[in-house]
Amino acid sequence: MDRDIRDGDTYRNVEEFFRRWLEPGFGRVTGVAEPSLRPDGRAVAVTGTVLEKLEGLGSTRVAVADGDGLRVLTGGPGNDRCPRWSPDGNTIAFLSDRADEGVFGLYLLRDGLGEAVSAPRPDGTVEYCAWSPDGGRILLGVAGLGADLAGGQGSGTHSVRSDDGPGWLPTVDGGEESAWRSAWVYDVAGATVRRVSPHGLNVWEAAWLGPDSIVAVASEGDPGEGAWYTAALVAVDVTGGGAEVVYKPQSQLGWPAGSPGGRRIAVVEALSSDRWIVAGDLRLVDPASGAVVAADTGGVDVTGLQWLDDRRLGYVGVRGMDTVAGVYDTETGARTELLATDASSGARYPEAAFAPDGTAALLLERYDRPPAVTLVAPGGAPAELAALTDPGAEWLASVAGTAAAVRWTAPDGLEIEGVLCRPAGDGPFPLVVLVHGGPVWAYRNRWRMGYDYTPLLVSRGFAVLHPNPRGSSGRGQEFAGAVYGDMGGADTHDILSGVDDLVARGIADPARLGVTGGSYGGFMSCWLVTQDRRFAAAVAVAPVTNWYSQHLTSNIGHFDALFLDDDPYAAGGRYHERSPVRHARAVRTPTLLVAGARDRCTPPTQAAEFHTALRDHGVETELVVYPEEGHGVRRLPARVDLAARMLSWFERHLRAR
């Protein structure tokens, strides 16, 4: 493949694909996230993404959806995000980097009108904000400018300055102050901001716990991303009374929420691959006694929490591949499901916002339909406030084929689920298996499946299978934990048996099979071609290919120790047995390897190692490293370039008709 693929017809065709899809939406909100429901339940504030050209990530703006549709409230400069209504519904707090690119501060917009007022700046960049129950203060989660970004955020660090010294100056990794996260509080009346978490405590995420305390998922002594995997639940007295551990989990924690009166803490505990990507069991913690109760959410892996009052708790999550939102009564244990749908809400996992009367706001989408800001009142039907449709989205849906849930049986009898996207007409089709990241994540029925590649490949005549092998979320902790200590084991056969099923049904052509994926999906793309020669081509994005060197060069070394359940310093064992590089001599599949130069989760050397190993054994391979990307390729036009390379690789080796 040419180094500069832009000279070829494939690139021009793919660029035209992106233009037909994206250009009609230029200048409009085409993506929404981070919903906040006004307390009266009649308006939803969101972070809206606006793209002006085929370059970069686009900009983000605060927008509000109500009975009059969707309107943008902020205009930058820079990016505005994370809107949060005040308890009285009169003010929106939000974050913006308008004063310093990449460094977010707190701003207040009163009555949705006029100029936003900036708050004093803490030391670092603000990642999230939350009003106190009485509306008098705002909690700020602050990251130092050298703090790690999670893999789901693209890895790297918050800010890399090129003008901080001469070019020869070395980088130093030693737990410097800029790597820490902390909690701060802004006093609305006094217009002052102060740090409330003690030094030496790294606060990954936090929420109010009554009027004078916060509850945090936090680590002591280490700000590195790997420390998150062993973080505890900590209560912090914001009046200066110190911090106290109230719960040490067996797995990982996410989405802490304290009741308005401070009597209970709700938190999700789950086996998790990445920070901010947590789906699991709801725990209710008594901060006074430390007593912990496991709440029954009806088989839902919870992905978001919000207290409605001191007794009722709004929750959202996944059950199978469905999005479920409901209200849980912490006194009686009764739950009321507001919505259970095969549509998705939110990107990584379902997200929702709640009003005190139990109304929920979701961002519902399907493979062939972009997100719509939707309200669901107790006992009522979903009501759309704003749908993000435009001629480009309609064109994309017209060429993207269809998506349907599929199920098959693994060799050990376990039922496995997935989503199959396919063109019109009869098979067999050339099939690409797209393995998700994680391993603890899951596919749902999302707009374009969340990828550029799926609708592009389907438009060119490919079927695309999105499997949810064991280890995926939505089916409880036992199913998620089945991958623990066994990555590259039974999950391998979960995926291969799905291919067998589609071949047997006449949907997939056994002579034209490909595999791709990113992160864990990148590992599996490399691993599968060492275990089975049925694949005619592979494209691995941000892969792990050598678990031993991954442990020593990644910023999340605790992840591999956890999921391989082994000692990286012991000879042999899973670190060596489950490394694709060790099995490179068995590979015959042409493999394209893709990495981001700024990736600290799966460093680009992982792709380079497998590339070299394949070349040593005479296998066709190419290595593509994007200098401005981290964990995955997120920016335009690099997205166009990767899509063109992937399509060219599969069309050449699978000979799509």
Automatic annotation (TrEMBL):
Pfam families per the UniProt record, alphabetical: PD40 (PF07676), Peptidase_S9 (PF00326)
UniProt keyword annotations, A-Z: Hydrolase, Protease, Serine protease
InterPro entries associated with the record: 6-blade_b-propeller_TolB-like, AB_hydrolase_fold, Peptidase_S9_cat, WD40
Residue ranges occupied by any Peptidase S9 prolyl oligopeptidase catalytic domain in the UniProt entry: 456-655
Keyword Glycoprotein: no
Biological process annotations from GO: proteolysis
Gene Ontology MF annotations: serine-type endopeptidase activity
TM regions (residue ranges): none
Matches recorded under PANTHER family: DIPEPTIDYL PEPTIDASE FAMILY MEMBER 6, SERINE PEPTIDASE S9 FAMILY MEMBER
Protein's recorded name: S9 family peptidase
Originating organism: Jiangella ureilytica
